[in-house]
Amino acid sequence: MTQKWALVTGAGKRLGLETARALARRGYTIIAHVNGSRAGAEALKHELAADALALHVVASDLSTEPGQDALVAATKALAPALDALVHNAGIFERAPFETIDRAAYARMQAINAEAPFFVTQGLLPLLRASHSPCIVHITDIAAERPIAAYAHYTVSKAALLMLTRALAVELAPHIRVNAVAPGTVLFPEDFDAETRARFLARIPLRREGSASDVASAVAYLVADAPFVTGQVIAVDGGRSIAL
Fold first, then answer.
1. Residue 80: how many CB atoms within 10 A of its CB?
2. Is pTM beyond 0.85 here?
3. Among candidate residues 87, 68, 25, the one with its CA nearest the CA of residue 50
4. What is the count of structural domains for the chain?
5. CB within 8 A of 231, min separation 6: which ones?
6. Which residues carry out catalysis?
């Protein structure tokens, strides 16, 4: 059986960690990109090794051009071909519009939008070497339905949404490109009970999403959807239809 390789960015915690676990359990050898959250990926590496599943940890700062290039180079050094590329790494920041300076804006765009663009560009030879490659972007339902005080964040996710559709057209027919758009998944730690209740009241399924909810959607697009490209799956408990 041919070895299958998957790169997951931001794989040290939360959605990226669970996505790496889900794809590993599907038989993919994982390249887990991390920046400041290496401990989670290292723990997953040991967990998977107990079941003879492989995970390689690669650290780089995707907010910089050298960091993006380093991830491309490390991936090329490990994998002869890339079957799945999951762009999960991102930052989320609340800031009133008038307080967002150029540095904060640039960092948000670099990690959330530019890194997926240029890392994918650098890894095209590996993707084209795969029999059935797939790219999945983790966007956000806010990419199409913005909320106040997250202007630079929603702009970055809107760019990633358009990149999904643009690459689905340009890289077809060989490479599929899709996106998963989480809604309220894993409440921020600073949300109090009242804030959580207010969010849950807007969700038809009346619960927050889990990391495994998102990871399952990614795994479906990667492994079980050979005729699906250019699509965005909202994993939001129905919130985007009831905003």
1. 11
2. yes
3. 25
4. 1
5. 178, 179
6. 153
